[in-house]
Specification:
- With about 260 residues, the chain is of the alpha/beta class.
- The chain has one domain (about 1-245): Spore Coat Polysaccharide Biosynthesis Protein SpsA, Chain A (Alpha-Beta Complex).
- It is about 35% helix and about 25% strand.
- It has 8 helices and 14 strands.
- The relative contact order is 0.17.
């Protein structure tokens, strides 16, 4: 299994923090945001290599960071930075086009995981992998949201009682369910060719949910339900809230220690 982390955005809503630093490398709980995701992935025995696709502005920063991780043997897999050559929001490729950019340069023939580099996940990825193997199909994760306004800003997925996806709509005005589908997917190796077909047919090169919606018209996708929500760090208030939460959790842990 290989992994692709989508990290080519410019995160302009977090300026000035992200003007000269990629959002996935912002500190959260004493380490870069991306390390939280890689910690989860390091528990997967199947993972061979992870590609971090980014832009020309941030590629050197990621390269230095990755070199230190690889040199120190921080993770049991290799990290590879892929520069998509873009320089700003006006010429960026988009998430799905970036995924194809990686596939065009590296002949991946294994099952693969795709994740946004700016989300915090809090669940056992190994259980999800087992689910993926049992269903023998592509898989996405989903969690419930009660806030209608948040649903309207998200990719909302609908599934049947057996956990198979029926539809996915990006940013629906009238959400068809309470289940939000973040950018975290497991794809079978045979699905690789579908990404090119989707783009060649005029599919949206950016929003991952639109690719998933298109894919559902061609093959099944199993939905793995999460008990905890995924934290999307898209704005300054969201980032500040996450940092406060980690700081409070750390303080609570220290306070609960019994004196020696």
């Amino acid at each position: 299994m290989h992994g692709v982390i989508l990290a080519a955005g410019y995160a302009t809503r977090l300026y000035p923090l992200t003007k000269d630093r990629p959002k996935p490398l912002l500190p959260v709980g004493g380490k870069p945001l991306l390390d939280h995701l890689l910690d989860h992935l390091s528990r997967l025995d199947e993972m061979k290599r992870i590609f971090i696709v980014t832009n020309a502005r941030f590629a050197p920063i990621f390269a230095d960071w990755v070199q230190s991780k690889n040199n120190n043997g921080t993770y049991p897999f290799d990290l590879v930075v892929v520069d998509d050559g873009t320089t700003d929001n006006d010429n960026r490729l988009g998430a799905i086009a970036d995924l194809q950019f990686v596939l065009d340069r590296y002949p991946i023939q294994d099952d693969f995981l795709v994740a946004a580099g700016d989300n915090l996940f809090d669940f056992d990825f190994r259980a999800w992998i087992n689910f993926f193997r049992q269903r023998n199909s592509d898989s996405a994760v989903a969690y419930t949201v009660d806030d209608v306004e948040k649903l309207r800003r998200s990719g909302v997925i609908r599934m049947n009682e057996a956990g198979w996806a029926i539809s996915l709509i990006e940013k629906p005005q009238n959400p068809p369910s309470r289940w939000v589908c973040p950018a975290l997917y497991l794809f079978k190796s045979d699905t690789l060719k579908e990404i090119r077909h989707y783009l060649d047919s005029g599919g949206d090169p950016d929003l991952p949910g639109r690719f998933i919606a298109w894919l559902l018209t061609r093959q099944p996708l199993a939905v793995y339900p999460l008990k905890e929500p995924v934290t999307d760090i898209g704005t300054m208030p969201a980032y500040e809230a996450v940092c406060r939460r980690f700081k409070e959790n750390s303080a609570n842990l220290k306070g609960s220690r019994a004196p020696f």
